[in-house]
From TrEMBL:
This is Diheme cytochrome c. The chain crosses the membrane at residues 29-50. InterPro entries: Cyt_c-like_dom_sf, Dihaem_cytochrome-c. The keyword Transferase does not apply. One of its GO terms (molecular function) is electron transfer activity. Pfam families: DHC (PF09626). It comes from the Bacteria. The keyword DNA-binding does not apply. Keywords: Membrane, Transmembrane, Transmembrane helix.
Length: 190
């Protein structure tokens, strides 16, 4: 055999091997593509099922201003149990931390003599109030009235507040305030 013939056979073998490798690559590529498409369809289907199941349940309205993590929920419940029996319980964010601290320690409460909370309920209420209240600036006096609280004013920009601001006035704009829901507003404020 001549060298030319041997070389042609080797070139043919190379081409055959190359074509075989290309076919194998295409087969693996399309196999991988099929797996990805199948996986995507399956995940989309599962996500659609999960979304439909989730949307079938009515949304839970968050009544408080902040979502309260589990470790503070008992403190919030105790706060509401002790404070909303005589008046609307305020969200902790409307007064600074120092105000809440002083109110918890003082048995004189806006002209009424109260039985002070004792530990451990007092500690739980304090953790809730201190976590969700605001810091007081060094140059400001501790406000005990809503109308003196810069946080209350900041949360009500442009709102003409009655004078004096009283806890019962909250209901005029927040009809569910007695249920500790300050997110629901009357139609005029939406």
């Amino acid at each position: 055999m001549s060298i030319f013939v041997k070389r042609k056979i080797r070139d043919g073998d190379r081409q055959g091997l190359q074509q075989s490798a290309e076919r194998e690559f295409k087969r693996q590529f399309f196999g991988l593509l099929l797996v990805i498409v199948t996986w995507s369809l399956a995940m989309g289907w599962l996500l659609a099922l999960a979304t439909n199941a989730h949307s079938a349940t009515p949304p839970v309205e968050i009544g408080t201003v902040d979502v309260v993590p589990a470790q503070y929920q008992l403190g919030q419940e105790l706060y509401l149990e002790n404070c909303s029996t005589c008046h609307i319980a305020l969200p902790p964010a409307v007064l600074p931390t120092q105000t809440w601290k002083n109110l918890l320690q003082d048995s004189q409460h806006y002209g009424a003599q109260l039985q002070p909370l004792v530990d451990p309920p007092r500690i739980l209420v304090w953790k809730y109030l201190s976590t969700f209240s605001r810091v007081q600036r060094d140059d400001e006096e501790t406000p005990y009235r809503l109308s003196n609280s810069r946080y209350f004013k900041a949360l009500h920009p442009g709102v003409k507040l009655p004078r004096p601001v009283q806890l019962g006035s909250c209901v005029s704009c927040h009809p569910s305030a007695t249920d500790y829901n300050f997110r629901r507003l009357t139609a005029e404020w939406k």
